[in-house]
Amino acid sequence: MKREVNKTVSGEFSRGCFSDYIRERVSFMLYLLPTVCLLFIWWLCDLPWQPAVYLLLVLAVLSSVLIFSDYSKYVKKRRLLELYASQAEAGIFSPEEESRGLEGAWAQLARGWQQKYEQEKENGREERERSSKYYTLWSHQIKTPVAAMHLLLQEEELDRRSMEQELWKAEQYVDMALQYQRLDKDGRDLVLKEYPLSSLVKKAVKNMASVLIYNKTAIHLEDMAAAVLTDEKWFLFVLEQLLGNAVKYTAKDGSGSIRIYTKESGGGAFLVVEDNGIGIRPEDIPRVFEWGYTGYNGRREKRSTGIGLFLCRRTMDMLGQTIAIESEEGKGTRVLLGISRNRFDIE
Q: Where is the Histidine kinase domain (predicted)?
């Protein structure tokens, strides 16, 4: 039964292939016109037919050999195309042999498309896995402030300041999730303008005022006369993330402080957010911007998601600016935001 099915499929392929070959080679039939014209002239001139018949036989044999060879190549190409089509459905591409000329160029082009497709598919898979891990972690972490607010509401006398802190933590987690989604979308709704640096810093500090007061963290703003070409919403997101990290890892007994200032280095201008917190271990510094990396302090304090600084790096890259970290364990951390950028026309 299986052999009969295979024969039937093979026969249908052969008939379909031959009919397609005839349709594609119709133009070659035009080459018969000179032969017909030659025979007509031969007849008009009443020449002997024996040489003509001999010539026709030679041409017929040569034509048959050429057509058979061409048809064999055509069938082979059709089978290869069907093989490649089935491979494409399975998401693979593996040419059986290296072709030359135009066919080789097409095969190389298809191979390039396949490699690009595989790379994009792998990137998509990694991004989906990363997003799944992030939202799983996020769902667990946002439970903490929600549970804390629930407990505070059960108390006879509501602790408003503690409630505000837990609400701020929940808002920060939600804002981080929204920014995480927006970073992966094309366009990203950027509005680039030139802003006075001091106004952006003061706005970020104002948004974080309740947190700074609750944690008894002093903040010192030095004179910042520079301007920065950036997107206000995204730049504030980075500043608030950095201030939140600084508060998180500084003392809560009133000795914690944050200093924000500008400095020139290497021909560029930097905005520096410096704290006197617990600092970062030297071996952790090269990896602090990696997705999901918490480092020793993050694992010890159990207050780090490993996502905040990753989003800050992605955001600064998107804005065409830089971010770097300098730290000394036990003494504090400095985050340097590169604010130098060439002016250009903005529509």
A: 137-343
